[in-house]
Amino acid sequence: MSKTACVCIAVASIALNAAASSAQTAAIPRHLDTARAAEGVGDYAGAAREYFAALELSASASPEQRAQISLNLAHLLATLETVPATVQPDGSQVDAWKTIAPAGVSGLSRPDMMRRLYQAAIEAGTPTQQDLARNDLGTLLLKEQRYAEALDVLRRLDQSRDPARRFVYSYNVGRAYEANRQSTAALTAYLRAVAGRPAFTPAVDSSLALLEGAERLDADAAVALVTTLLSNGEIRSAGRVTSRLLTRWAADNAAPRLLALWLRRFVAASIDLPTCQKSEVPFLDSLRGSNDLRAFIQDVKRACLDDKLPERLQFGDRSGFSSRWMAGWRPVRDILDNPRTSFAAFLTAIGRQFEERQDYRQALVRHLAAWALDKSNAESAVNAAMVLQAHPDTDRTGGVLDALIEDIFAAKGDFIAERDWPNSQRLHIVLARIFEKLDRWGPVTNPHSALFQWTAAIADDAEIRKTTPSLAPSPGLYERLGDCYRRAKQPNLPAAAEQYRVAAREFAVIGRQEDADRLRRLSEELGRPR
Amino acid sequence: MRWSNRKRRLLTAVLIAIAGCASATRAEAAVSLVFQVADPEIGGYFRGRSADAERRLAQTIAALLNNDQELRFWSFADGSVFPQLQIRLTKRTQRWHYEVAVRGDGSGPPLKAWMIPWQTEADVERTGGFPPVAQLTKQIVDGFQDQFLTQRRVDLLEVLRLIPLGAAVRLNNVQAQPLAILSLDWSRYQDLATSDFRILYKTQSGALLVLATGLGHRLAYPNPPPAEGLVVRLVECILTGGRREPIGRHLQDIRTGQPVAIYLARFDSLGAAFSAAGGGLPPPAIAPRD
Questions:
Q1: A-chain residues within 8 Å CB-CB of B179?
Q2: 20 to 30 A from A133, CA-CA: which of A37, B122, B142, B260?
Q3: Which residues in chain B touch residue A231, judged by CB atoms under 8 angstroms apart?
């Protein structure tokens, strides 16, 4: 045969092989689809046939496709663990793997076959496929109680790469650490899993088991766990965790921090007074804790149950709440394990419950107590002011209102430090309305005047817009300030006109043209020379 | 006899199912939605057309719920039949609230209720009073979404598990494993494909609750529609008193009994999340606890 002919035959042969290889590769997706469909209806034999067929054809497939086939087949084999063995006519049992394994691999055990497949995926796969293969291999090793090997495999996972699966990876890493008696590392991994998916109960339960079973309470980890759960709306889980940890660690020095978390969970769950009295209080009563904890629990109970709390309740008084809430705890916002701020939030929630019962005097006591505890949180002051405004009979002499205002100004630094501008603004608005009703319009320098309070509300508005520029315009503030300038003992009509002009502009921005026109006309009228 | 909360909830679910059975011919919606503006101050803004406004609010919120990734599995529509999601806009001590309740039936206490603060009089003062009606309606809906749906959705989902998603189930006797096809249309419910379900059967020996787990696939559902339903494996049975027994002991009861209701027992959003992650990869293995 001539050289040319040989070359032609060789080229043709290569082309034919390439065509055949291409046809084989093209058949792989069909086998995979058929396999998945069979798997879905429990036809594991049929699914296995298809996966093995795809595997056989995969020599010419891309590494990624080979890895995918390996992973899917390994997953099928893992499922076989739950399939009961087949009973033979002679009474012997044949496990599911043996009934479906092709001749070439029937000598291997199911786990060995799985290991082979995972290794193939680790060698050929994309980073995502490699991680999945390591995860599943590590899990298999854990089931076989080969803990050190499992940890070695799972530690090589990149736990941050795959957003959809990383919480499972973190959890399995945690399981491997725990099996190797490295509890601290295990807990860190579990908490990472919870942070990745707070609804993932296995990670929550595993974290809780470690926290309960430790020799010493890891309070920071407990706080991190409950904070994650509460922040993500997993209130029931948060309740379960805090209750169990409080039961276990009531005598620990850090138990007050756990109680603080419990109080936060109470607030988040919107538990009503009857439920509080029926189940929450008995739980607290069952705890055997330090003197501090017992004092705190006593106060929590009184806040829920006592409808005769004194009006001007003081912390540290015999008839008041314990001074321990204040000692050693600075009010810091958004920290859930601070007993002081948590009790304040709790008192606010209970105060609202008393409002619903229409026991406004007792509601006011709790709001004022919350305010006394935590002056960085203006919500309690707003609530107190709203009760005073709606129910003036709760403060016949006006002494409570005056004391509240003095307190607010004494605490102004805390407001600014903690940036609760929205509640600060609400507070100024409520106070302004109170003073309007009392006919105290000005002067602007007097904190006990509507002019002062509306001006302060506008100042707060500017602060709010620094961090929330999308806040809707506030024409009401300028209109009401304009009203104050008109109605003060010494009216300031040009100032009123200016405020109405601004209010008109703000109303126009939000499409309330009638209001805008009304105030523009008023502004023009007031601005005319007299 | 003291019942645990779990048993009480199970009984409640059974009663809802029986009620649903009795009115099986009603419209598609699994949950009716009622909105009531109970505060006369806001009601006054609608100038005698509160009923129209309330209906629009109910329809808008129903649409929101039907678009929610997890809540959409129950059909919400404005209406007055039970089970019902009730929302009342009320006012107490200078603050408006959404009083929200899920009711299984018209008598007895709600399955769950919430009092959700919306805004205060101070907030309304700031903006110069309530806006025109069209804007006010939007504000009410936005407030509900921010204060309730965003913050309480886990709670709401917990309660909705007591409300059936469907009723009809077809056993698949061909395979070695006890499989069934749920009359939950794949096109709508595929994200539940790997979730767990409870199927309530009425059998000759009484009510039987069957636990089933989704296999992640679909099969044709012959008659009546849907065209393709979710495939589940029947796992075990729960009898009265909470006793659990293997499925094999009750297959005959199940074959001769009547499926009454399908409940979502555990939403496995993992399945949806993993399949959404793409790549045709199987879900990752999860190490069991000892």
A1: 41-42
A2: A37
A3: none
